[in-house]
Amino acid sequence: MSDKRITIGVIGSGAMGSGIAQVAATAGHEVFVYDNNSAALDKSKTALQVVLNRLVEKQKLAKEAADDILKHIKYVSSLSDLKSCGLVVEAIIENLSVKQKVFSELETIVQAECILASNTSSLSITSIASGCTKPERVIGIHFFNPAPLMPLVEIIPGLATSDEVTVGSKKMIDSWGKTTVLAKDTPGFIVNRVARPFYGEAIRIYEEGFADFATIDWAMKEFGGFKMGPFELMDMIGNDINYTVTETVWTQMFFDQRYKPSLTQKRLFEAKRFGRKSGQGYYNYSEGASIPQPKKDEELGQGIFHRVLYMLINEAADALYLKIASKEDIDLAMTKGVNYPKGLLKWADQIGVEKISDVLQDMYDEYAEDRYRPSVLIKRMAADKITFY
Ligand SMILES: NC(=O)c1ccc[n+]([C@@H]2O[C@H](COP(=O)([O-])OP(=O)(O)OC[C@H]3O[C@@H](n4cnc5c(N)ncnc54)[C@H](O)[C@@H]3O)[C@@H](O)[C@H]2O)c1
Hints:
Layout: E1 8-11, H1 15-26, E2 31-34, H2 38-57, H3 63-72, E3 73-76, E4 87-90, H4 96-107, E5 115-118, H5 125-129, E6 138-143, E7 152-157, H6 163-175, E8 179-182, H7 191-194, H8 196-207, H9 213-222, H10 230-237, H11 239-252, H12 263-270, H13 298-321, H14 327-337, H15 344-351, H16 353-367, H17 376-384
Parallel strand pairs: 1-2, 1-4, 2-3, 4-5, 5-6, 7-8
Antiparallel strand pairs: 6-7
Helix pairs in contact: 8-13, 9-13, 10-11, 13-15, 16-17
The protein binds nicotinamide-adenine-dinucleotide.
């Protein structure tokens, strides 16, 4: 399935589809990109030319290689142009019924052995596949934004996906130079599930009045080695997107309190304070706005960092316990998908699972909120004095 002669189809030429097409063409495949909006197709084509020109100017890509990538991508105006594809990746609007409709139509166009993949961030692969006559060939192939730069890709078999399709898809994406991890078809897959406390616990610390945004961001960078603090990162991702992901994971987890969104972020969302793209989020990005300074108190900073980290480790441990992915894949996903400085389970071993279990239990007892419930895996490992690795 890593055969370069396989033609790749991409449906949707927005941010993700354009990036995925670039990655596949760079790997040497013939790529057909379809979008039902011709302006979006034109935009994608122009944007790719700009990106490649810039890479050539910076001498990161040879002119011939850039020309080759452009030659490999065809922008098509009909879904039926994808009939010769061996793998089609769908990256259209995040709407279940629209995706199901596109998959049903696609099934009548492509050959029997063509793999149908969705790049969905929040819908279940099983539900997308349920509208297909051959759900065994439907799979989740989840790239991160921007696809050409982010190394991680989550591979998500649905309930009916065949092993052959799973193995073949993984091999194909590996051959594109990406780092793939296998994830169970559950809300948020690995990254968007395990990362929730990075945002949620940081907001909670702010809501409880322990520290302001700048101090929490400083603490996570200074003591945790994270490249960005949670509030800077939410402002970069966009509070509309980040809030929606949080709310989606929470509702799909049958309102498990551990994933409960915050009113602080919801209000920003309602006020359209999306972050950098709207000029204001947790921070004000308008010209001349004052830059808030952190309170560089080491004891406070260490406390903030450890509270967020322990909640992240708890989430990673629970994902392992519930067989969402292997320990290696959970650690890889967080380092390659969201640039965490270390894998969370490796980090847990370094700190000591017993210590983490004690702190989480204390928080659970004090708050009496399900949010702080320690994973049963952490508790058992602490009792048995065992490590993840
Ligand atoms: N943006 C991200 O950070 C990100 C990351 C990972 C996954 N995703 C997922 O990738 C998918 C696409 O996201 P995006 O950010 O690229 O969206 P986008 O809005 O940038 O692009 C979507 C494109 O799909 C086209 N489209 C919509 N309906 C269509 C249809 N029926 N047939 C053909 N084309 C259609 C639109 O014209 C648009 O060009 C979503 O499922 C999203 O959840 C997004």
